[in-house]
Structures are given as C-alpha cells and as structure tokens.
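Dear Dr. H.,

I hope your travels went smoothly. While you were away I took the liberty of generating a structure for the chain from your last submission, since the lab meeting agenda had it listed for discussion. I wanted you to have the full record in hand beforehand rather than looking at slides cold. The sequence, exactly as received, is reproduced here:
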Amino acid sequence: MGKVRKTDLFLLSEWVCLWTVIAFPFLLAIYSGNRNEQTTMIPLEKKMLENFDMSKFIVCTDAGLSSATNRVFNSYNGENGMRSYITTQPIKTLKGFLQDWCLSDDEWLLDGDKSGKKYKLSELDSERDRDKYFFIKRDGLKRKVSYARIKEIGEKS
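The corresponding predicted structure, in token form, is as follows:
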C-alpha cells in the first residue's frame, strides 16, 4: 500500500488483459503495482499456452514490456508452435536518424512481393494501392504500414 496523505491509503495495482483478434478478452490478471511489469508477461503467456492450446501468436507491446528476456521468449519457431514479438514506439520519441528513416519517401517494399522492387510513397495510387501494405527495413528493424495509414499521415503533415 502507498500513502496519498497521512490518512488516505491506496492500493497500487497493475491490470493485465490479453485479447483475441476480435477484441475478446480471454485472460485477466492483477498484480501488485510495485512489481516490475516485465516479469509478469512470460508467466501469463505460459498459462495461455497451457490452458488455451495456443501454439501460434504474436505479442505486441509498448517499450515497457520489451525486455531482452521477453523478446527471446517470444522469438520462437519450433515444432511446438511459433511466437513473434513486436514492440511499438512513437516516431516522435526516436532519434533523428530513425525518424528520418521511418518517414522517408523512398526505399519502401511491397509486403509479399519477392521481386525486391522499391516504391516511393509519394507515387502510390489511391485506387491501385488501397489494400496493400508496404514496409521498410534498416539494420534488422522493420516498419510496416498500410497505404490507408500512409495517406492519413500525409494529410496531417
């Protein structure tokens, strides 16, 4: 328990809720709020693997859960299943050279296209490219975005 004032007590807690693709919550846990949240992720995933017979999933977190242990645990591809790990991060918090990379107009690739053809975002067509996803790579990092999101970003700038 933590103290707000001398007489008022409050409980520090952390809620964890895991969701399905269709936004249906299927696992909920409550932890002490003074506990490091990075240590709560793997035990929850192990429960999920045991209780829900799930062998393939992608973990998407913010930087707060992006510990080396969590990334290694979720970078698995074996006979018992497959897990992948994505960390989201706001572009405005990146270093300048990474912001430039994320927002660059050229060097984008079409997801699923094996030819390696590179695209300029400014040359995409709203009708032809509406349902396509493009990505850009740098030093093992990958940024993927839909054409609809590209147009939305362009309209705001």
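Two observations you may find useful: The mean pLDDT is 76. The first strand starts at residue 2 and ends at 3.

With kind regards,
E. W.
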